[in-house]
From TrEMBL:
Source organism (scientific name): Rubritalea profundi
Domain DUF58: 37-246
The protein's name in its UniProt record: DUF58 domain-containing protein
Residues annotated as signal peptide: none
Highest rank taxon of the organism: Bacteria
């Protein structure tokens, strides 16, 4: 495990420094303005910034001046339910999530932002409050890879509620999940109204379309229920594909409704172009 974490640290540090440092800075702005000082009113200044207490003491108008608040509070909300341990290729969804989370965490660290972690399954499993420092960042990476929930089903709505209850100040929330769950769209929308939310859907190609490999025993990783499925039956494959398509269309509709930026990352593909495109799109919004 420590070898995995060390390898991930080296890769994530390099990517965040060489590929994403500037893009991250341009994509995610601070949450407002911090008070800096008072100065005497000058023609053309905003009247609404006049401080009437200081003005009364000095017998001449003074205004409050501000500086842009650059520091962000970032939260990585990572799904560690049973389905996230699946991977038909070289990597599981959890391993891909850990790598993306590491890149985002180091990018935020280089930008001077505080980063926190929420691991969730049927219930919130682990919460590390936003903080700075390399030791904190490395612990987050280790926990994403090593923490296993007692209850393996998925509850995205519960994770959204936990974030809204726990983080009072507006934050930037990256939610990494396969989003295989029910009745969470409204709660995700409520989260996006309070915090800037970005959805990163991580999926395996086998989940999108069943391969023709004959009769197989499929086990639900969250409930343990086993089912014999004849994947050679074309009707079974078509029904599965239609069901998955409907679920994804519902998710896409909800993300569009609540104006949540998102990317879809496959376990068998390079996620870097997707993150670059996400940052590029967001940078153009702030331009």
């Amino acid at each position: 495990m420590m070898r995995k974490v060390h390898h991930l640290e080296i890769k994530a540090r390099r990517l965040s420094r060489e590929s994403f440092s500037g893009e991250y800075h341009a994509s995610f702005k601070g949450q407002g303005l911090d008070f800096e000082d008072f100065r005497e009113y000058q023609h053309g200044d905003e009247i609404r910034f006049i401080d009437w207490n200081v003005t009364a003491r000095m017998n001449t108008p003074f205004i409050r001046t501000f500086r842009e608040e650059r520091e962000l509070t970032v939260l990585l909300a990572v799904d560690i339910s049973g389905s996230f341990d699946f991977g038909s290729q070289h990597f599981s969804k959890r391993e891909v999530a850990a790598e993306i989370a590491a890149v985002l965490a180091f990018s935020a660290k280089h930008n001077g932002d505080k980063v926190g972690l929420l691991l969730f399954a049927e219930e919130p499993v682990l919460y590390l409050p936003p903080a700075k420092g390399s030791r904190h960042t490395l612990r987050m990476i280790r926990e994403v890879l090593a923490t296993h929930p007692a209850k393996k089903s998925t509850n995205i709505a519960g994770a959204c509620d936990f974030i809204n209850r726990t983080i009072k100040r507006k934050a930037l929330v990256f939610m990494l999940s396969d989003f295989v769950d029910n009745d969470f769209h409204k709660k995700l929308g409520t989260l996006s109204q309070k915090h800037e939310t970005i959805a990163i859907r991580i999926f395996d190609p086998v989940e999108e379309e069943l391969p023709d490999v004959g009769k197989v025993n499929l086990t639900d990783p969250e409930t343990g229920q086993e089912t014999m499925v004849n994947t050679s039956n074309a009707n079974v494959r078509i029904a599965y594909k239609k069901l998955n398509k409907r679920r994804l269309e519902g998710l896409q509709k909800a993300l569009a409704k609540y104006k949540i930026d998102h990317v879809d990352a496959a376990t068998d593909a390079d996620y870097l172009p997707l993150l670059h495109q996400l940052f590029k799109t967001r940078s153009s919004k702030h331009a």
